[in-house]
Specification:
It contains 21 helices and two strands. With 448 residues, the protein is an all-alpha fold. It has a domain of 78 residues. The protein has a two-stranded antiparallel ribbon with strand order 1-2. β1 and β2 form a beta hairpin. α12 crosses α17. The longest helix has 26 residues. This is Deoxyguanosinetriphosphate triphosphohydrolase. Keywords: Hydrolase. InterPro entries: dGTP_triP_hydro_central_sf, dGTP_triphosphohydrolase_C, dGTPase, dGTPase-like, HD/PDEase_dom, HD_domain, PHydrolase_assoc_dom. GO terms for molecular function: dGTPase activity.
């Protein structure tokens, strides 16, 4: 793989349009970022759970604030990588004109990396999958292909993001978001189909990156950018190198910022957070600065900022020093796992404590259980109703709730199920709960 081809400005749906030489305030990749910022799927992230239940008295991160922070870290990673490359080769812009845009590409990809995640965090993904593996959805296996069944039984938010960005929904622009090929490829962490994914100890196939419906879409993107075929899986591909920076930005943010939220919610004490973050602060003596802050929240903010800065510099340096391996597709671990051994060990400590104390905190478990039940119940209502050829009165009313943009003229079972999943997976936590209550008769819509 080579940077000249990987950083293509070609747009999805506008492949034959020449890039204008008109002077503009934005580059093609900055346009990607702006299109995402102003989009409805991005705005809906403000009411989707990140880890903790949506805020009451105490503010915690939701999917939108998380995505904005990941985009900020991603931009820094990309910009720092370019600066390192530029320092080593002052004439690099002549060889790779768009290398200076890496920060903008990564930030746009980071902004969109969670667009396909359903309500209630990973519990929403599990609820959709379990409907087909353990629930009433099992009866549909006989009506779909093996590839399609793999999609349904392993619902993946990352794959759904590519669909959200490229699929021609009814009444919407048939070109989707018309993002650049470089940005689209940079969100696909696992460039293979569901039936090829879920391979242990394989960084390219740990999960999967596109539904059966988007296979042709991704192959077109891969061909344009020159992505290498995966030697261990001829049907799939090796990652676009910038995926590693997007992945690193996400890893940095949720590992560090979840600690900040846990402190706000009094799940972890200040002393516990300091003990976890201080070793990541680059060896800088922060004692005087920390002691000068009476507010423990401000101390955590300082520690968070310094820790993120250390991780950004470390990941960008690894990425720059190992260019040959990234371009060859032979780098087989996340960037954060390739840092100094002491940093890696501390990050693993944070991960272990996060699992034990944060992700299994009572409020987190409660929202996961409730979300699981809500999502499963919605599928139990919508999927059978949409699939019935002879619909009863209630079935027709249920189907009428699905917005026109999601409906399909295709008649096969998978396409109809995908229609319902497109609708349900796009719901916010609040909308899903409200709709669940109304369908179950728990609450009645106001007549006002």
């Amino acid at each position: 793989m080579n940077w000249k081809q990987l950083l293509s400005t070609k747009r999805w749906g506008y492949e034959h349009r020449e890039v204008s030489d008109q002077i503009d305030a934005r580059s093609e990749f900055q346009r990607d970022y702006d299109r995402l910022i102003f989009s409805s799927p991005f705005r809906r992230l403000q009411n989707k759970t990140q880890v903790f239940p949506l805020p009451g008295v105490v503010f915690v991160h939701n999917r939108l604030t998380h995505s904005l922070e990941v985009a900020s870290v991603g931009r820094s990673l990309g910009r720092l990588f370019y600066n390192i490359m530029k320092k080593e080769n002052p004439d690099i812009d002549q060889e790779y004109p768009f290398l200076q845009e890496v920060g903008n590409i990564v930030s746009a990809a980071c902004l969109s990396h969670d667009l396909g995640n359903p309500a209630f965090g990973h519990s929403g993904e599990e609820a959709i999958s379990s409907y087909f593996t353990e629930g009433k959805g099992r009866e549909y296996q006989q009506f779909v292909s093996a590839e399609e069944w793999a999609d349904l039984t392993h619902f993946e938010g990352n794959a759904n993001a590519l669909r959200v960005l490229t699929h021609a929904f009814n009444g919407k622009d048939e070109k989707g978001f018309a993002l650049t090929y470089a940005t689209l490829a940079s969100i696909v962490k696992y460039p293979c189909s569901a039936i090829e994914g879920h391979v242990k100890n394989n960084h390219h196939r740990k999960k999967y990156g596109y539904f059966d419906t988007e296979t042709a879409t991704f192959r077109k993107i891969a061909a344009e950018l020159g992505l290498k075929a995966d030697p261990a899986n001829p049907g799939g591909y090796l990652r676009h190198p910038l995926v590693y920076l997007v992945e690193a930005a996400d890893d940095i943010c949720y590992n560090i910022i979840d600690l900040e939220d846990a402190h706000h919610l009094k799940i972890l004490s200040y002393a516990e957070v300091e003990e976890l973050l201080l070793p990541l602060c680059g060896g800088e003596d922060l004692r005087d600065r920390l002691d000068a802050l009476a507010d423990t929240g401000s101390r955590v903010e300082l520690l968070r900022a310094k820790a993120i800065n250390t991780l950004i510099h470390g990941c960008a340096s690894v990425f720059a020093k190992n260019q040959d391996r990234f371009l060859a597709g032979t780098f087989e671990m996340p960037l954060v796992d390739a840092l100094d051994n002491n940093i890696v060990a501390q990050m693993k400590r944070i991960s272990a404590i996060s699992v034990a104390r944060i992700y299994n905190a009572p409020t987190v478990v409660q929202i996961e259980v409730a979300g699981f039940k809500v999502m499963n119940a919605l599928l139990e209502e919508f999927i059978p109703a949409y699939l019935k050829e002879e619909k009863g009165h209630f079935d027709k009313k249920i189907v009428a709730m699905i917005p026109d943009q999601f409906h399909t003229t295709l008649t096969d079972t998978y396409a109809k199920i995908r229609t319902v999943l497109d609708y349900v997976s796009g719901m916010t936590d609040i909308y899903a709960v409200d709709l669940y209550r109304k369908i179950k008769g728990i609450s009645i819509p106001s007549l006002k």
